[in-house]
Amino acid sequence: MSTVIATAPARPAIPLPLVIVAGCIIAAIGFGARGSFGLFTLPVTEDLGLTREQWGMAMAVQNLVWGIAQPFAGGIADRYGSARVLAFGALVYAAGLVGMAFSPDALTMTLTAGVVTGTGIAIASFGVVMAAFGRVVPAEKRSFVFGIATAASSAGQFIFAPLGQGFISAFGWQMALVWIAMIMLLMVPLSLALRGRAEPGPGQADLPFMQALSHAWGFGSYRLLVAGFFVCGFHLAFINVHMPAYLVQCGLSPEVGSWTIAVIGLFNILGSLLSGWLGNRLPKQMLLASIYFLRALAIAAFLLIPVSEVTAYIFAAAMGLLWLSTVPLTAGLVTLFFGPRYMGMLYGIAFLSHQVGSFAGVWLGGVVYDQTGAYDLVWYLGILLGLASAAVHIPINERSHSGFMLKPA
Fold it and tell me: Does the residue 403 lie in any domain?
């Protein structure tokens, strides 16, 4: 039987509400800027003469690099503190955006948009923010505060979608990226509010990165959680990058595409808060299974009904409620399983699975469109994966597994 270790949250150097506000603004900027990249699909491909597959590959590499770097960013933040990690990440993120603006071809775009920007997103991600929250927020409130952070990310998407489209319309896509990079620099001073690092609790061992991961991977429920998170990434990345272009293909304007992304972000605020609130009251694994099942239903309905502005906004609202509502529940399960000490790293591993799914969703979207002239096959695959992920989450055992962190007697 696992031994449950009760650890008191670390006392923040500044008042907790200010820590949460600063972290939420960082999450909003970082995720909001990333959420606007789908708006650049048409102007970038048309201006540079890129195929959808080439642009999709750059975005797919971005998601994959984001996922690979995330566990290391989280582990470094766990050990050395979140503030320096977030500030450095903001600088890398901004550099990647400026590099994107002046990329002349597909290879350079893959390096700047994919490798550099993906690394910056990982280091300055809301995953690192939530790890910082996990250190200072009492256990009984963590799921709800994680929901608040996720809702802030969604608010960023709601803000940056019309803002990004406005920048593109007013200044062109290149200067739009430069302006977004300048906004990114606001994260540097805000990161000072998240100073501090995770400390081992009473009786806990301070395990090296790989040893802690090895012990955690032996817990079957954690493996199922990681596997199911792949599908979340597949859905989000495909819709975020290819949905605006899909709606234009269906005869709607680019502005409808940008507002569709904004509506997803708006309704995701409600969905994330509701998910975090319910996560403190109902079994998290059953809530996750329900979210993935409802996503499959929403996609199926969207394909069956003729596309119009109304149906696009209704679908965006439905997906928004289910969009990042998986995040507070997944992060909540990770901290329930293992405690806050290794949350940045262990949530980062789950997020790596998410980003492998993102890579698949973005890349397949481009490949299928170039080969068939439509996105239908990827939509159908999204339905099947949603049903599979719902089934994977049902057997998860919602209990602590923090006993493996005990110091040897």
Answer: no
CB half-sphere exposure, 7, CA atoms < 13 A: 29
The domain that holds 140 is classified in CATH as 1.20.1250.20
Establish if 2 belongs to a structural domain: no
pLDDT of residue 181: 95
Q: How does pLDDT run across 244-277, given as a tens digit for each residue?
A: 888 988 888 888 887 888 888 789 888 888 988 8
Give the E-state strand segments of 238-376 in sequence order: none
| CB-neighbour burial class of residue 41 (10 A; exposed 0-12, middle 13-18, buried 19+) | buried
Rounded Cα gap, residues 154 and 269, in angstroms? 5
105: containing domain:
16-195+209-397
Measure the CA–CA gap between 224 and 203, rounded to whole angstroms.
28
pTM: 0.75
- 399 phi, psi to nearest 5 deg: -150, 165
* CA-based torsion, 375, 380, 381, 383: positive or negative: positive
Letter for the amino acid at 267?
F
What is the secondary structure of 87-135 as a DSSP string?
HHHHHHHHHHHHHHHT--SHHHHIIIIIIIHHHHHHHTSHHHHHHHHHH
How many whole angstroms separate alpha carbon 325 and alpha carbon 149?
A: 11
For residue 4, being part of any structural domain is answered with no
Structure tokens given for 164: 């990004």
